[in-house]
Amino acid sequence: MRTPEEELRTMTLEAFADTIVPGEKRSPGDRSVAGASTGGGAVQAGAIELLEWDATGLTEGLDGFSSALDAHATNYAAERGVTLDDSVPPFVALDFAQRTELVRILTTPGHPEKALWVSLALFSNMAFDSAAHMHTVDALAAGHPGLLALGIEKPGPDGLWRFPEFSYGRELADLHPDTTPSGSPA
Amino acid sequence: MTGIERTDVLVVGSGFGGAIAAYHLAAGGAKVVVLERGPWLNGEDFDQDYKLGSSYTRAFDFVVGDGMSILGGNCVGGGSVVYFAAMPRAPRFVFERHGSIGRRMWPSAVSRDTLEPWYDRVAESIPITQQTWTDVPYAGGLWAAACNHAGRTANPVPAAIDTTKCVNCNWMMAGCRFDAKKSLLFTYLPAALAHGAEIRPLHEVQKIERNHDGSYRVHYDLMDEEDYRLRSDGGAIDAKIIVLAAGAGATPVILQRSEPTLGTMPHAVGRYFSGNGERLNTAILNEDKVREVLGLERGDGLAYEANQIGKGPVVANWDRLDGSLPEYERFSLEQLYFPPGLGTILAQVPGAQGPSWFGVDKKEMLKRWRSWLIIFQMTEDDNEGVFGPPPAKGNADRLSQQMLGVGRLRYDPTPNTLRGWALADAECKDILERDGLAEVAAWTNDVVGAYTVHPLASCRIGDDPATSALDDRHELRGHPGIFVTDGSAVPGALTVNPAMTISALAERAIPAIVQAAQDRGVDVTYGAPAPDGSTNGRRGVADLLPALTRR
Ligand SMILES: Cc1cc2nc3c(=O)[nH]c(=O)nc-3n(C[C@H](O)[C@H](O)[C@H](O)COP(=O)(O)OP(=O)(O)OC[C@H]3O[C@@H](n4cnc5c(N)ncnc54)[C@H](O)[C@@H]3O)c2cc1C
Question: What pLDDT does B2 receive?
């Protein structure tokens, strides 16, 4: 069971992950997932599970990430005269375009905290494009939204990938005239 | 002090530079110990799995610097286990380059002609296949057809792959499960072991110290086999000869950290780093146009949709490897498969209005992943990388259990480098956007800086002590008995994949290392055959030996 603080932290981190790879709302009342895209996004793909796994090296910093992100959101809103709904954390209260703009600011070269936000973005993306918290075979079997969206093929019966059909099988261009017999540039 | 272990030759790192040195020195009769920071993985360990902790992360080291990040191997066999096995020789003009120093940067003793017999030695030792059009997977075929359509040529690339064993699974970056990739685990390393060399995995070298008798003491930590953030006290080994081959992202860091115990380093240690001018572009193909314009069909109704199928880079365009073009305008364009993870986050949405590497449009682009074609550009950069003061341990402050760390490399591309990248980008676009075949965008440098899998030149050979850390026999200036044989010795970008040239230079460095060992009383000779016993290569270099062992 998550404590109320953990719930809030999770909402903020989910909203960040959803800004990196957006998904559709899990329920009509879903606040952290903005619903900017159809199909599952980073959140449904397991971003929080991945971030909470200490193998990433980010786990201990997650409280700091979420409070810093909320502080940035508060400033962002104040600067632009945006009133935030205070029933949810400030970053979650931003709409999708505002979240996107804020993440862009935080990850722009020269921003003093860029490296931190880039690392959070890397892992958010990785949850979607590689299900890095799960064995790939299991993730595909479980219908992982990211691997399916990419169209990763299912492995063979032994759990391994092989592609017996792989080539157009014909000459498709002339070789460079200065090629040595061993196949290198002359 | 007593109780310290002793060996004749201590090799740091077991990639190309380290494995080649370990083999020849052991075969010649020296006692050789190899210290390797990564684990020793084989066959079944190479799983096809993106989960953190599988070989996909265990075998790698990804170091984020300021303006440049480096991906390298972290296991016995080093980069040869994770690389794509493309093994071309460097074009002739490369050796005549001036780079950032305004005159020929390679030592006068090294040219394509003088290196050729050493390339031959490598080719005899690592089975390299000249791939044919029937070995070329869909992605390579598509790149060839697009080049042809644009009036260009295209070449299947020679590769250290046994094509009869390859299943075109495209997982080779995580190590080849099917033993098709002829890495050092199948060539120099078993031969070194057979001659008595010892390879010790999970030993990370931290620094080197000079003993009163002119020998060296090498200090290492022991690494946890799963969580590389964890280490325990290691020990030290004394050796008469040190061969540093920790790779161009790590060798200079070890030397920098050793400065207090070794004495002043040559100015060029940790300077003149080159990322081999690398840059990547992703094309999103229009499947209908691929069918209509290029006439390609997979046979199952699809024109392409085959990003996942294949074996790394297979087809390259070499039209711009033209020695008559000005420096910084020459480059190659190689088709490449880059798996998820970095290969997707750094890809940008072509013509993006909003954010280019994340967000709604990026997700739409990810849904077309099977129709991606990745083109790898190797240009002439300006050797502008510089390493800052070393971290306390290793070559980076580790963040994740494996793979991800923060290093000290600073890379601020000069106008020369930027222009080379822009020319290569434009050429890619010209070929692939012709007749609506695809939309192309370069990977962003804004996220983790520029990015290289081919780190070079951080400790380079040369004739000028001011701009080269090593003499032309790979001995560290001012530190007799310390040799560097890895990618850090290569003076500059090569415009093609570097492993073949790193290996040829390592082969060429051996006679002088043997000579230095003999001078220090080690009972060792030069002249081992190729690891499989072949002797043509040895005959081919015989005439070159006197010049290489002169002082
Ligand atoms: C994904 C990928 C694909 C590539 N594809 C190609 C390709 O197709 N063709 C090509 O030519 N090149 C390719 N390369 C590049 C090629 O792998 C490298 O250029 C080559 O391996 C460099 O050889 P090296 O001897 O300099 O160092 P490496 O092979 O990197 O070996 C250095 C070794 O030292 C170890 N080490 C580092 N620090 C320490 C320490 N402190 N103590 C002990 N050990 C240490 C490392 O773990 C490593 O095993 C690729 C690289 C990558 C990462």
Answer: 56
Whether residue B14 has pLDDT greater than 80: yes
Contact between A155 and B360 using a beta-carbon 8 Å cutoff = no
Domain presence at residue A179? no
pLDDT tens for each residue of B166-224: 999 999 999 999 999 999 999 999 999 999 999 999 999 999 999 999 999 999 999 99
Question: Based on the structure, what is the number of domains in chain A?
Answer: 1
Q: List the Cα angle B499/B500/B506 in 5-degree steps.
A: 85
Residue B132 in tokens = 């044919």
In a domain, A185, yes or no: no
The answer, yes or no, to whether any atom of ligand 1 lies below 6 A from the CB of B33, is no
Per the structure, the complete domain to which residue A81 belongs is given by 4-149
Residues 143-202 of B with CB under 8 A from A: 144-145, 147-148, 152-158, 167-171, 177
In this structure, the number of other CB atoms found within 10 A of the CB of residue B229 comes to: 16
For residue B333, the chain A residues in CB contact (below 8 A) are none
Q: Which of B357, B435, B260, B49 is nearest to A107 (CA)?
A: B357
- B100 — pLDDT class (breaks 50, 70, 90): confident
Number of C-alpha atoms within 13 angstroms, CB side, residue A69? 35
Domain membership flag for residue A171: no
Mean pLDDT of chain B: 97
What residues of A are in contact with residue B144 (Cβ under 8 Å)?
Answer: 172-173
Examine the predicted complex and report whether its ipTM is higher than 0.90: yes
Atom 16 of ligand 1, nearest CA residue:
B79
Interface test with B, best of A162, A167, A170, A182 (most B CBs within 10 A): A167
